[in-house]
Hints:
This protein has helices at residues 2-33, 43-48, 87-99, 125-138; strands spanning 52-53, 59-63, 66-69, 77-84, 105-109, 114-122, 149-153. By secondary structure, it is of the alpha+beta class. The chain has a 7-stranded mixed sheet with strand order 1-2-7-4-6-5-3. A hairpin with a 4-residue loop joins strand 5 and strand 6.
Amino acid sequence: MMGAALMLTSCKTSQSAYKQAYEKAKAQETAQQVNAPVEQTTVAEATTATPTQTSDNTPVRQESVSVVRMDGSLKAYSVVCGSFSVQANAEGLCQYLVSEGYKAGIVKNFDKNMYRVLVGTYDTKSEAVKAKDAFKAAYPSRSDFQEAWILLNR
């Protein structure tokens, strides 16, 4: 009788641990489906790419990208505020930025299989730098937006 009670107790403990792990995984999966960022560009990725620096010392990353979603045309310089491997996550951030009044767009770097969310696109580097600085200043508490960078489309 005592052995049966121990057996039921031990099954319940491992079943409870399994249930907790399952619920945690399910919550993470649900978060991914509601436009939570899955994979963002990490600092390591940004530093391994060779940024180009010009006279004003603002780094610029050169990438070959293709337009996925954008009102208007892609110009030489763009401000990137998010990078995702899942297009739905990029779409979610882009929709948020449009609702905030930005002319946001999405481009894809096929070499890295990453979707880049653009706050705006500009003819000159100086315009892009000003826009990046203004964007970062508008969202001081969003650490993800503080990582915004300049993309030079090649």
